[in-house]
Amino acid sequence: MARNSALNDHFLIVALAIGLGANFIAGHYFSYPFLYCWGWPVAVTLYMACGTVILYIVSAFTLYALLRGAMVHAIGGTLIFIGITELPRLAHMLFMTGGSCG
């Protein structure tokens, strides 16, 4: 069983690399980054609907960790907060490789 699991993990990594490579080639040479254009409406809807709630939960966890004196958890919460805040910019850099959706 473990061998099949490792094979599936490698397949996922290879499929992700092929998808990102094809998106880069499509954006750079054909000016149509398909992952960005197809995924943008879904990603924006999910981020706007759930992003604020998740930021509130992470902020409450960080505040609770600070009040409890658990600095490691507070630093972890702060890093998660920064990561969620910077997620749209990271997605834009990864998937918008040039060109436009129009």
Summary of the model, kept short:
With 102 residues, the protein is mostly helical. It is built from three helices and no strands. It starts with a helix and ends in a 7-residue tail after the last helix.
Describe it.
This protein has 102 residues and is mostly helical. The chain has one domain (2-95). It is built from three helices and no strands. Helix 2 packs antiparallel against helix 3. The chain is extended, with a radius of gyration of 18 Å.
Shape estimate: extended
Q: Strand fraction band?
A: under 5%
Mean pLDDT: 85
- Largest sheet, strands/sense/barrel: none
Query: What is the helix fraction of residues, given as a range?
Result: over 70%
Number of domains: 1
**Strand elements, count:** 0
Q: Any idea what the radius of gyration is?
A: 18 Å
Task: Give the tags.
single chain, 102 residues, mainly alpha, 3 helices
List the helices and strands and how they pair.
Layout: H1 2-30, H2 34-68, H3 71-95
Helix pairs in contact: 2-3
